[in-house]
Specification:
286 residues, alpha/beta, eight-stranded mixed β-sheet, 7 helices
Length: 286
């Protein structure tokens, strides 16, 4: 009898489609008071299950001033509950030293990857002790890992890192690499409806039919428990693209003029409260 060597994670993932409401983005009402709509960030803190969560904000992907990005999230989290919010940032792989942060990583209730450039996250942290500690704690402890925009895209494998506009319609022009592998055989894309990214996701899973595409709209997120149980929260929709029964793809016949064709895609559109079980295509046969 075969057994599945992959343990069920004890931790959870919060995968955010980007542009989630933060303290500085809230609008003021007629009395000059900000209406509090921080559902996604509130859920992050709630999922830590700690009364005073220890949070690490990783801004390595940030294309903005990383210090400013950290302070924005710190302000938002502290407006929601009593928590201790710390900052991690590395500009290159050579800077990744755990001398001052190893203990923090081992004690954190939640790790939050900000947006920016997902390729920077994977190239800086791939194969490091930093990533190993986080993965081990996610699998064997109740560590919560969250990512928004690029930070969300980096969680999956395969991971998109290039291909926009007309490029995403041309077979072979969407670039994919290994992500951080918190989710295997799942490709995550963000800002999905706002930036019209359906075709590029379809192209990715046409080349990887065992993978499920998860496209998440802005200010929307997917909670993943037990590694496979997904639930939608937030104000937008999540689009699931399943190519396991697809056919008629021309994705291998790529050139500068060959637009993508693929038939037989299965698509689900899910909104707040909807649940979805991520298929496990590599489960052992009984």
């Amino acid at each position: 009898m075969h057994t599945n060597p992959c343990p069920i994670p004890s931790g959870a993932l919060l995968i955010i489609g980007g542009a989630e409401d933060r303290e500085e983005s809230l609008k003021e009402d007629d009395d000059g008071k900000k209406e509090k709509h921080l559902e996604v960030l509130e859920q992050f803190l709630k999922l830590t299950t700690a009364s005073e969560p220890l949070i690490e904000i990783v801004t390595t992907a940030s294309s903005e001033d990383p210090g400013e990005t950290y302070l924005k999230y710190k302000k938002s989290f502290e407006s929601i509950c009593n928590c201790i919010v710390s900052h991690i940032h590395h500009d290159c792989r050579e800077q990744v030293s755990l001398e001052h942060i190893r203990q923090r990583l081992k004690e954190a209730h939640g790790v939050f990857f900000s947006g920016g450039d997902q390729l920077k996250i994977t190239s800086v942290y791939g194969g490091t002790e930093f990533l190993s500690i986080i993965k081990q704690r996610y699998i064997y402890e109740q560590l919560l890992i969250a990512g928004t925009s690029a930070g969300a895209m980096a969680m999956s494998t395969p991971m998109i890192y290039a291909g926009v506009g007309r490029d995403e319609m041309i077979a072979g022009n969407v670039k994919v690499t290994m992500g951080l592998e918190f989710l295997k055989d799942v490709c995550v894309d963000t800002h999905f409806v706002d930036r019209g990214r359906f075709v590029r996701m379809a192209q990715v899973i046409a080349t990887n039919p065992s993978s499920i595409g998860v496209g998440i709209e802005e200010n929307t997120a997917v909670i993943v428990r037990n590694g496979v149980e997904a639930e939608v929260i937030g104000n937008g929709v999540v689009i699931i693209i399943d190519a396991r029964n697809s056919h008629g793809s021309n994705v291998v016949n790529f050139n500068d003029e060959n637009l993508l064709s693929i038939r037989g895609l299965q698509v689900h559109i899910l909104s707040r409260g909807e649940k979805y079980t991520i298929p496990q295509t590599n489960e052992p046969h009984k």
